[in-house]
Recover the amino acids of this structure.
């Protein structure tokens, strides 16, 4: 079960390394600079967690749709993919093209990297706990050994 989190975690580790480094080559957007943009993930987790809990999940339950844990892992991994695919595009087309003209691309464009990552966290990490609880033997449910 833990191996199902690997694709998302590969994308997630890009945030603290490459994404902030890329943001340092971009122009600050008001009070937002590259390190401050990292807070967008926490904001995204709060927003998507609220939406999932109040809108998406109740709607699925009303329609009798049960999404399996593996599908939730796949959705979370897809959100991780959605968060990293714009990075090379912004690097090639935005940063380098603007540097050639003597301008810097706004770090605000990185919001498209950070927000899908927060949505993926809702599916990956919450579902990892759910999966561990469902799969773990009864005597190990309280101590996390089943994870």
């Amino acid at each position: 079960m833990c191996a199902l989190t690997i694709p998302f975690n590969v994308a997630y580790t890009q945030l603290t390394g490459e994404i902030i480094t890329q943001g340092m080559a971009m122009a600050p957007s008001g009070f937002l600079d590259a390190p401050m943009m990292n807070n967008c993930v926490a904001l995204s987790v709060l927003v998507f967690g609220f939406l999932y809990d109040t809108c998406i999940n109740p709607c699925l339950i009303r329609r009798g749709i049960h999404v399996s844990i593996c599908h939730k892992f796949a959705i979370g991994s897809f959100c991780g993919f959605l968060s990293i695919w714009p990075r090379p595009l912004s690097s090639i087309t935005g940063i380098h093209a603007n540097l050639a003209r003597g301008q810097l691309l706004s770090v605000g464009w990185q919001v498209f990297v950070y927000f899908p990552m927060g949505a993926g966290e809702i599916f990956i990490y919450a579902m990892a706990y759910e999966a561990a609880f469902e799969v773990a033997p009864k005597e190990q449910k309280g101590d996390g050994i089943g994870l």
